[in-house]
């Protein structure tokens, strides 16, 4: 973020195999790279609560698709929200329409 203009000048995602909880326990971030989790098609994320929400509910949704899913979701099913997919060693972002 440009501190003078407030504009976002670059975004990136950094690979982390684990996220460490406050308790010190490590939580794996690699479930969607493991075929054992192919029963999960995607994860829907929202950070809103009853006080902090967008004007149009659902505008904040992010879908993370599982590349190993046995029943993958069609990207067009969630065309209206941001979608994330892991391809060719990178996390790709597709903004909503």
| String of helices and strands | EEEEEE
Order of strands, widest sheet: 3-4-5-6
Instruction: State the distance separating the first and last CA atoms.
Output: 24 Å
Major beta-sheet overview: 4 strands, mixed
Which stretches are low in confidence, meaning pLDDT under 50 for 5 or more residues running? none
Determine Rg (CA atoms, Å). 16 Å
Q: Total helix count?
A: 0
Helix content: under 10%
What structural class should be given to the helix and strand makeup?
A: mainly beta
User: What is the number of beta strands?
Assistant: 6
Provide the residue-averaged pLDDT: 86
- Amount of beta strand: 25-35%
Taken from the alpha-carbon principal axes, the silhouette is globular
Description:
This protein starts with 17 loop residues before the first strand and ends with a strand. 5% of the residues are buried. It has a domain at 36-94. The radius of gyration is 16 Å and the shape is globular. It has a 4-stranded mixed beta sheet, with no helix packed on it. A two-stranded antiparallel ribbon has the order 1-2. It has strands at residues 18-20, 26-28, 42-45, 62-65, 82-87, 90-94. The mean pLDDT is 86. The chain is mainly β. It is built from no helices and 6 strands. The protein is 0% helix and 26% strand. Strand 5 and strand 6 form a beta hairpin.
